[in-house]
Amino acid sequence: MRCNAEVFVTMNALLFGTILQALRREKIPYDTRQVPTGLSNRGGNMAGSLGECADFNVLFYVYVPKKMKEQAQETIAAAQHEFSLHRY
Hints:
Structural class: alpha+beta
Number of strands: 3
Largest sheet: 3 strands, antiparallel
Mean pLDDT: 85
Oligomer: single chain
Shape: flat
Radius of gyration: 15 Å
Strand order of the largest sheet: 1-3-2
Low-confidence stretches: none
Number of helices: 2
Order of helices and strands: EHEEH
């Protein structure tokens, strides 16, 4: 099954993991993509990456089949809400 509807993008790895768990729990097939965004990931020198937060240097994308997009969005919204309640 081809997963080509983008339903979620984040730079937060913990939230990304939470979203994937929720999709697995609901048996929604998905694909992911990770895109480095920081200077240090684009071949820049170390001095150019000083001050960058290493935790937020990657964009995490989630894709699902088009016919499951609405169900996935509802699942993701519920998972995001749950995640926000457990933030410390």
